[in-house]
Amino acid sequence: MTISAYNASVPVFKQLLNSLKDVLKKAEAHATEKKIEADALLTARLFPDMLNFTRQIQIACDFAKGVSARLADVDMPAYDDNEKSFADLQERLDKTLAFLDTLKSEQFKGAETREVVLRPGTPKEKRFTGEHYLLHYGFPQFFFHVTTAYAILRSNGLEIGKGDFMGKY
Predict the structure, then answer these.
(1) Helix/strand/coil for 128
(2) CA distances from 128 to 74, 125, 139 (A)
(3) Tens digits of per-residue pLDDT, 120-167?
(4) Domains of the chain
(5) How many CA atoms lie within 13 A of 9 on its CB side?
(6) Which residues make Cβ contacts (< 8 Å) with residue 57, sequence separation at least 6?
(7) Is the full-model pTM beyond 0.90?
């Protein structure tokens, strides 16, 4: 079986970003119902040396758009990391999903073997084939941040389960 880089990436990113949108709605409703300041959830962390919930969402969006853009060989949109509310995070997710919707399968032709270079010209430069980049770097990073965002909310009492994480597929 052969699978295209587009089919292996963009629909997966969209599925999990849409599930994050739904989880954010539940988090906002939970905060309202329990009279919890929104900021308590938005700045929550699993451990003091880890990034907070808002940053986890920002990075998940960055990986979804960044990996997809690099594989499609198109310019990646730049976002300011200035989200301060649930509504701001919803907007960030919407912008990322809208960008993913602009990508077409044809743009990913040859992506599996296309060279992807991260941090070019620096001591941290990394070179990958598109396939290796997606499967061994992009997906693990994306899933880590989505999972951590989910776990932060769950650890703060939000009643969500595996179905919420998976979303619609």
Answers:
(1) strand
(2) 17, 10, 14
(3) 999 999 999 999 999 999 999 999 999 999 999 999 999 999 999 999
(4) 36-166 (1.20.120.450)
(5) 35
(6) 20, 24, 83, 89, 92, 93, 145, 149
(7) yes
